[in-house]
Amino acid sequence: MAGEAQADCLFCKIVAGEIPSTKVRETEHTLAFRDINPQMPTHVLVVPKAHYPNAAALADADPQLAGVVLAEAGRVAEEEKVDQSGYRLIFNTGSGAGQTVFHAHVHVLGGNAGLREKL
Ligand code: 5GP
Ligand code: ZN
């Protein structure tokens, strides 16, 4: 069924507490934790607790939850104090774009002047 935990999914295991993570925020339906290999001073991942393979699949199946994930990303940026300086939200989608974990997640990246360079 859509959204069900997948036994072989790293982020489902993090959500279940089977793999430790450095938690930043948690709500009923979302978890935010620090990326294990940070690319910027602030590098937090926000995931829905339910399993969807990528952000588009999440938004298609549960647009409200997709909105909650985005709102949580904004709250993380505020708490990390990068909301004023600026931050970037990235959803890698597909292995060709660098997606390595196929559980929807948004990268919250900030605290680096390099962000001023546009993609
Ligand atoms: P993707 O490349 O799929 O967009 O992002 C996956 C992210 O998960 C990568 O930035 C990677 O560093 C991070 N990651 C991979 N394994 C772990 C882990 O066990 N714990 C945490 N906190 N992050 C992880
Ligand atoms: Zn999962």
Automatic annotation (TrEMBL):
Coiled-coil ranges (or none): none
Pfam families assigned to the protein according to its UniProt record, in alphabetical order: HIT
Record-given protein name: Histidine triad (HIT) family protein
Residue ranges constituting the HIT domain according to the UniProt record: 10-118
One Gene Ontology term of the molecular function aspect: catalytic activity
Motif Histidine triad motif mapped to chain: 103-107
Active-site residues annotated for this sequence: H105
